[in-house]
């Protein structure tokens, strides 16, 4: 442990120092025989001691992919760092060389070898299957990283044959109805946003470029059959500016001259036509979208939103977003589940909070993204104890009955769940016909486990608990790839 006061370097966040290959994991319960594939999950996992450990930010750790392969009722596991260009430079030096992107270095960037990347893009946000490729994603780089889907070895970069410019999103989405992927790339130095679609193998089909009047941090987007939809908040973002990271500043900053209200952008998927909406009294940050769909004249959008009130009014994003570096559970109680109803033509944006629990890492059944959904799955804080340190349950919300179900796994103490990934049954007959897969951190064992829930009986006994003897650091996103 490099700093016992920085929570992002200890306990459930402490980097994992080993790369494992484990066959035939111990399983409590039974893995459904129809569940044949791999759950890939990534997160930050700092390899070398940071330049200033006291300033290290959760988002700046080197990307490490964890793969749980389920086949014929058995489970195996391996994990591996993504060998990015920046990590290779640090490996050659035998130590950390780079200031972080989201945290602030506190001092100017020390000199780096001739020809080395100017900043270290870490590949730790998301991992997806795109056709036959397995890709590790970040949101600052101009390419993704292709991995061997079995060994997780880093094979090289993937950049859509050079057909895109800008920082590629870590949150692409698949529209099963149109059978196409939707991506965006953002360039905050040239000030444009490029929305593009690809076929199932990643070949670019359409592109629409939008001139941007400001330089937002953007992390996710959603879509309907007609539109890409973005919610830009008050955080500015200049990762490639000479005035930010090289000078020891975070790439994130807040311009006090700018409005703190949300700026909502619709981009027509076919014509590229744009609509900007500027709702009043909209001081909030949108984390992740659950889903969106058109209903009559309205667009319905479900998302995790953090209102900027109380102590968050004056926050410094490099210290304080998404979860402040403070003791206690409060940080994870800030994000809420919201439903927006937007009449784009009339410029009307309404929202309401859903439920009384906190919610993040929201995911739908992705086979119906862009279409009307009934259910949402998420990590949540519900009935926290004084010792709750993070999310303490998974939640399933039923928008038809306005009812939430919670899965705590243990009634004795809090385990900390990560993002729930819905895997449809191969012969799915209804929306929640499938399973929820999620990694949980057990603070008593200081170890993690993959827990499989029947999505339709969400709060019942888990179907299977697949236990590791080590922990998987609390991280970010993952996806299921069928084999
Ligand atoms: Fe994310």
TrEMBL record:
Its cofactor is Fe(2+). Pfam families: RPE65. InterPro entries: Carotenoid_Oase (IPR004294). Keywords: Iron, Metal-binding, Oxidoreductase. Belongs to the carotenoid oxygenase family. This is Carotenoid oxygenase family protein. It comes from Pseudomonas kulmbachensis.
């Amino acid at each position: 442990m490099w700093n016992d006061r920085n929570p992002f370097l200890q306990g459930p966040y402490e980097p994992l120092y080993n790369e494992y290959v484990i066959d035939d994991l111990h399983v409590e319960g039974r893995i459904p025989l129809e569940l044949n594939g791999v759950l890939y999950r990534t997160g930050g996992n700092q390899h070398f001691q940071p330049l200033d450990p006291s300033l290290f930010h959760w988002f700046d750790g080197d990307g490490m992919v964890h793969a749980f392969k389920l086949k014929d009722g058995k489970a195996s596991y391996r994990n591996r760092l993504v060998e990015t260009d920046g990590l290779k430079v640090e490996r050659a030096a035998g130590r950390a060389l780079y200031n972080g992107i989201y945290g602030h270095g506190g001092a100017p960037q020390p000199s780096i070898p001739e020809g080395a990347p100017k900043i270290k893009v870490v590949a730790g946000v998301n991992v997806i299957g795109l056709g036959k490729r397995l890709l590790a994603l970040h949101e600052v780089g101009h390419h993704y990283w292709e991995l061997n889907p079995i060994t997780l070895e880093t094979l090289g970069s993937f950049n859509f044959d050079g057909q895109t410019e800008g920082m590629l999103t870590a949150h692409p989405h698949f529209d099963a109805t149109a059978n196409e992927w939707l991506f965006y790339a953002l360039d905050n130095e040239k000030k444009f946003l490029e929305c593009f679609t690809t076929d199932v193998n990643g070949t670019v089909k359409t592109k629409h470029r939008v001139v941007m009047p400001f330089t937002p941090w953007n992390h996710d987007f959603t879509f309907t059959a007609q539109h890409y939809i973005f919610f830009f908040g008050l955080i500015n973002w200049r990762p490639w500016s000479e005035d930010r990271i090289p000078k020891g500043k975070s790439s994130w900053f807040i311009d006090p001259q700018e409005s703190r209200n949300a700026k909502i952008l619709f981009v027509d998927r076919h014509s590229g036509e744009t609509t900007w909406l500027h709702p009043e009294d909209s001081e909030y940050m949108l984390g992740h979208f659950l889903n969106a769909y058109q209903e009559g004249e309205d667009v319905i959008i479900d998302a995790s939103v953090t209102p900027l009130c109380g102590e968050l009014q004056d926050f410094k994003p490099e210290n304080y977003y998404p979860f402040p570096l403070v003791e206690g559970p409060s940080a994870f109680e800030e994000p809420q589940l919201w439903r927006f109803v937007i009449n784009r033509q009339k410029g009307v944006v309404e929202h309401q909070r859903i439920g009384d629990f906190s919610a993040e890492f929201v995911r739908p059944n992705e086979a119906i993204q862009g279409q009307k959904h009934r259910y949402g799955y998420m990590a949540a804080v519900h009935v926290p104890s004084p010792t709750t340190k993070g999310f303490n349950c998974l939640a399933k919300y039923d928008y038809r009955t306005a009812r939430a179900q919670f899965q705590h796994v243990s009634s004795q103490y809090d385990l900390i769940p990560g993002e729930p990934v819905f895997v449809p049954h191969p012969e799915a007959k209804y929306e929640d016909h499938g399973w929820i897969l999620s990694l949980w951190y057990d603070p008593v064992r200081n170890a993690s486990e993959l827990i499989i829930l029947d999505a339709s009986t969400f709060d019942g006994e888990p179907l299977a608990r697949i236990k590791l003897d080590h922990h998987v650091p609390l991280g970010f996103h993952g996806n299921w790839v069928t084999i």
